[in-house]
Amino acid sequence: MDRMTALKDKLKADLTASMKSRDEIRTRTIRMALAAVNVEEVSGKTSRELTDDEIVKVLTKEAKKRREAAEAFSGAGRTEQAEAELAEQAVLEEYLPAQLSDEELAALVDEAVAESGASGPQAMGQVMKVLNPKVAGRAEGGRVAQAVRARLTA
Known about the structure:
It comes from Planobispora siamensis. This is GatB/YqeY domain-containing protein. GO terms for molecular function: carbon-nitrogen ligase activity, with glutamine as amido-N-donor. With 154 residues, this protein is an all-alpha fold. It has helices spanning 6-20, 24-42, 52-75, 79-93, 102-116, 124-135, 141-153. It is globular and about 55 Å long.
């Protein structure tokens, strides 16, 4: 039980610390993250406690929302809102595993292609099936798919 919620406990402790230090961005972001985790815990037929891996997935989704919102605000010339979204994304990323570099991702793609014996773009599904568990949470799905596509068509 204790192991399942280490990340959630860290979020709660950091929320308290940020409230005491009057860090508004951090407080707002962590509150939002905990709310998203709570929503996920009570969605479905029965409420349950999320594992750290499931919490990482929720936080990854929230960070992606912030990045996309920042891009939309920037495109609309609303730099103040874009900066606020990027600040929230930065706070969320502190709780996520380190992202893979392009070189690390390419090496994992090569490994997965060799492991699955795939050749040609039609084998992308096979490669993704092998690769996804290895990169879980450390690279965005679109970036992974793009790397696999590039490798299979080369």
